[in-house]
User: What shape does this take?
Amino acid sequence: MSSALDPPAIGSPNIVIRDQAKPSDYIDRAFDGSPADWYRSLDRSATVYVGNLSFYTTEEQIHELFAKCGDIKRIIMGLDKVRLTPCGFCFVEYYSHADALDCLRYISNTKLDDRFIRVDLDPGFKDQRQFGRGQHGGQVRDQYRLDYDPGRGGWAPSPAQPEQRAERSYADQYAGENLPQQQQQQYYNRGGGGRNGGGGGYDKRRRSFDEGGDQYGSAKRGRRTHG
Assistant: This one.
C-alpha cells in the first residue's frame, strides 16, 4: 500500500509538471522605471527576447519556428551597431501575452540552426535596443568568450584583440570562410545567409552578457552592473 507521502506515478492525474513559463531575474539597466515596474510590464508583455542565435540565422527561419506558438506581430533582428549586420539576438512580438509565455514553455532551450536558443520574456522593444552594446559593435558576450564559435564570427573580437584581427574575424563570418565545407555550400546557395551551428545552451541568468556588458549586475531581482 502506498503512503500519502509517496510521489505520484507518471500518468497519475495528480502529478504536477513544472511550468517553464517563468521569466529570468534579468533587468535591463536602461529600463525607464523601477524593478517593480519591470516585473509589472512582464506580467502583460507580448514580447520575447531570443538569445544565442547564429549570426547566419534568418528572420524567415525565426518566423517559421516562433509562429508555432501564435500569430507574430513583428520580429526585430539584433544588429551590430557598427556594421549593421546580425549579431546573434532578436525580439519577437506577439499579439497576446499567452503566446509569449508559450514560447518560454516550448521553444526556449530548443535548437535552431544547431544552436540551443534561449527565450526570455521582455517588457517590450524600444528603438535602439536592436543594437549590440559591445565595444566592437556586437554583443558583449562575444567579447569575453574564449572559444572559437563559427556561428558567431569565429574568434571573439575582444578589446585586447588587434583591430586587424577583429575586422578579419567579422569579414570571415560573412564570406563563409569559417564554415565547414558542407555548410559553406549552404551558405553560398542561400546568397550568403548560410545556416550554421556551433554553440551550446546557457541558462537565463546569462542574458546580462547578451545585451549589456558593464551595464548589468548579478544581484537577484536587482539591476545588473557587470555584463
Summary: The longest strand covers residues 86-94. The helical segments are 35-42, 59-66, 97-106, 141-144, 163-175, 181-189, 207-211.
